[in-house]
Amino acid sequence: MALNLVLLGPPGAGKGTQAARLTRLWSIPHISTGAILRDAIKAGTPLGLEVKAIIERGALVDDTTVTRIVCERVSAPDVARGFLLDGFPRTVAQAQSLDSFMHSRGDLVIVEIALSEQDVLHRLASRMVCSECGANTQDDREVSTCHDCGGALVPRVDDREQVVKERLNVYRRQTAPLVEFYGSRPTYCRVDGARMVDDVTAAIVGAINACAGENGGPRA
Fold first, then answer.
1. In a domain, 142, yes or no
2. Phi, psi (degrees; rounded to nearest 5) at 187
3. Which residues, in sequence order, are CB contacts of 217 under 8 Å at separation 6+?
4. Cβ(97)–Cβ(70) below 8 Å
5. Is residue 157 part of a domain?
6. Is position 167 annotated as part of the catalytic site?
7. Catalytic residue among 38, 81, 156, 190
8. Is 57 among the residues known to form the active site?
9. What are phi and psi of 164, to 5 degrees?
10. What's the mean pLDDT when you consider all of the chain?
């Protein structure tokens, strides 16, 4: 049975880190809308230029564009065993569209990684990104090169404090209502994102097994 995961949480909650671990564990693709959009930005496409301006002011790409991108990706052959969505849905409207698309394709397992605003600001203040491959690092201000490809590390444009605060405002207005939308489902679970990375991973795996295992879900 396919394992279809959705990760929720504010900027800096560690969704990307946990997504990489979970997709390796269950051999399912990690579908990150952020990565898809960053590829468009790097390629300099018309969509990429539009998205770049939106991201740099801390706003979000419109529902229609993002939903089209995600549904096309989820239709690919490599999602037969399931998928993990990171960065989508961000709004209730997107979640409703995803529910319609997922009709008869299996249940969604929703994992919320909770993190306080204070912890978000602290984490993002120390985050660097590789200028070549886009990999994030944490608390590595004294290191100048990426451990993956050797590219130069630079602060993320969308991690400036003013931009982060606007992203948090957007999250509270648009994305936080997803907790209410999904919260009553038996496949919804919440974990504390302030703990050490390994502890967060263990909590997520335990929660997924608890809420999806009875339906033949996780195989790890």
1. no
2. -100, 20
3. 1, 3, 109, 208, 209
4. no
5. no
6. yes
7. 156
8. no
9. -60, -45
10. 83
Among 15, 24, 160, 172, the one annotated catalytic: 15
Which CATH number covers residue 76? 3.40.50.300
* pLDDT at 218 > cutoff 70: no
Q: Exposed/middle/buried for 215, CB within 10 Å: 0-12, 13-18, 19+? A: middle
Within-domain flag for 162 = no
Q: Token match 């539009």: residue?
A: 50
* Banded pLDDT at 139 (limits 50, 70, 90): very low
Residue 76 resides in a domain: yes
Angle CA(199)–CA(130)–CA(5) in degrees, nearest 5? 40
Across residues 173-183, what is the average pLDDT?
Answer: 88
Residue type, 139: D
- SS3 call for 142: coil
Q: Which residues contact 161 (CB under 8 A, 6 or more apart)?
A: 121, 125
Q: Structural domain of residue 75, as residue ranges?
A: 3-115+175-215
Q: Indicate the DSSP class of residue 67.
A: H
- If one counts the domains in the chain, the total is 1
Q: Name the token pair of 39.
A: 């590829």
Is-catalytic flag, 165?
A: no
Q: Is residue 160 annotated as part of the catalytic site, yes or no?
A: no
Residue with tokens 């991108």: 69
Q: What is the pLDDT of residue 63?
A: 84
| pLDDT single digits (tens) 1-60 | 789 999 998 888 888 889 989 999 999 999 888 777 777 788 887 877 887 888 888 887
